[in-house]
User: Which sequence fits this backbone?
């Protein structure tokens, strides 16, 4: 039994937007509406829900509240509900009245999906794309790799084979649009969904789930973006091109995915202890920032070429982020954070939760080690804990490392926990 729910969460004009510290002013209008979408699957006594919210991230307390309230109104156990964010950078900040509305809407979307359950067929598979959508933003000079060009797809069809819903998973920041955009939008996933509905049928529900996209965006420097430097490709036109590539790859694969009824259904959870990252003393971090500041001043004084000055300003920003992170982590009395990892099996497919922005290498490794034909790596799921770089990346530094809350072992612990849980489902 499968049901889909879809509830609009577009914030009113004038709402503060999340995603860029360089953005100035609240939303001025709406380019495309935002939604919370839910897929519920039941078999016998077992039910699971996969929820995707078009917001920047959903913190653990909100996840728990949505789960609890949805469980109270359905037959779903709270622990078999997975709640993910798409991480759009043109959505609202979750706070105040809007946050209450968001929670109510997410619950409503789950209840709607629960009540809409009918006998349906599910099929899952992998659709590779040949173009460039996600690019490794830490490797802009050396070919944009590693990246993940696979799209995981789950198809819901009715008894006559008509497509009712498509769930897809692909790692790439929905931050094609930059800080200058003040229109609410789901970013490139909106255009992918729009094209799928155009080509299949208007009523098809499309559920996009983020992947392990920590170091993957649409091809620009995260450092310059953080400074608010304008980047010419950050337009709705380019977002549409990217959405078309993704939709095209899904459409060419969709008919070839054989539908199947039945299959196992299960949900498991475990806890992974994440260690707060304390890479240096406060004094060291402060002197690093001072040094970076002096470098900027010297270059400015010497009228250095703009790219060199920008690079120095980026380094200063990173030193500032590192110092703030260190101050925060030193204040935390708890040195370890117990994070939840969840895995869900639906027939030949498995879903793994990642509670933040993991580097693409982590998802690739989890897929490689998974015993399932199709493994969905769902980023920003069940929590919103920031960046999880690979151990190698900590040695290199850079934007994500300068703001990462947890240490170099976190990503590998997650990989191992995922592999362990996936074995249990088998
Ligand atoms: Zn991000």
Assistant:
């Amino acid at each position: 039994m499968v049901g889909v729910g879809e509830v609009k969460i577009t914030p009113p004009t004038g709402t503060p937007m999340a995603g860029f510290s360089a953005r100035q002013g609240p939303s001025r209008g709406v380019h495309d509406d935002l939604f919370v979408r839910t897929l519920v699957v039941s078999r016998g006594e077992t039910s699971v829900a996969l929820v995707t919210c078009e917001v920047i991230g959903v913190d653990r307390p909100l996840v728990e509240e949505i789960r609890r309230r949805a469980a109270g109104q359905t037959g779903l156990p709270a622990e078999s509900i997975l709640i993910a964010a798409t991480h759009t950078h043109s959505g609202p900040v979750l706070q105040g009245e809007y946050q209450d509305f968001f929670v109510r809407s997410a619950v409503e979307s789950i209840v709607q999906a629960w009540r809409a359950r009918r006998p349906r067929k599910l099929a899952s598979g992998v659709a590779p794309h040949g173009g460039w959508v996600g690019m490794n933003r830490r490797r802009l000079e050396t070919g944009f790799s590693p990246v993940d060009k696979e799209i995981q797809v789950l198809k819901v069809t009715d008894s006559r084979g008509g497509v009712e819903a498509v769930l897809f998973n692909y790692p790439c920041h929905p931050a094609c649009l930059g800080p200058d955009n003040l229109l609410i939008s789901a970013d490139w996933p909106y255009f992918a969904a729009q094209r799928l509905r155009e080509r299949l049928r208007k009523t098809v529900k499309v559920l996009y789930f983020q992947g392990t996209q920590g170091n993957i965006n649409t091809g620009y420097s995260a450092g310059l973006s953080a400074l608010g430097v304008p980047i010419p490709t950050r337009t709705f036109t380019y977002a549409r091109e990217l959405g078309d590539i993704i939709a095209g790859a899904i459409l060419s694969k969709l008919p070839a995915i054989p539908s199947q009824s039945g299959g196992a259904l299960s949900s498991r959870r475990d806890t992974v202890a994440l260690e707060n990252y304390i890479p240096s003393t406060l004094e060291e971090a402060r002197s690093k920032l001072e040094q970076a500041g002096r470098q900027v001043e010297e270059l400015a004084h010497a009228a250095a070429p703009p790219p060199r000055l920008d690079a120095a300003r980026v380094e200063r920003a990173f030193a500032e982020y590192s110092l703030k992170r260190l101050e925060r982590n030193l204040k935390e009395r708890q040195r370890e954070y117990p994070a939840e990892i969840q895995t869900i099996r639906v027939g030949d497919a498995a879903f793994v939760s990642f509670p933040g922005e993991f580097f693409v290498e982590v998802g690739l490794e989890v897929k490689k080690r998974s015993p399932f034909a199709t493994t969905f790596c769902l980023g920003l799921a069940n929590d919103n804990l920031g960046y999880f770089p690979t151990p190698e990346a900590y040695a290199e530094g850079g934007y994500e490392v300068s703001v990462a809350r947890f240490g170099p072992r976190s990503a590998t612990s997650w990989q191992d926990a995922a592999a362990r849980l996936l074995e249990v489902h088998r």
User: Anything to note?
Assistant: The CA atoms of residues 89 and 330 lie 29 Å apart. The chain has two domains: 2-268+339-425, 277-333.
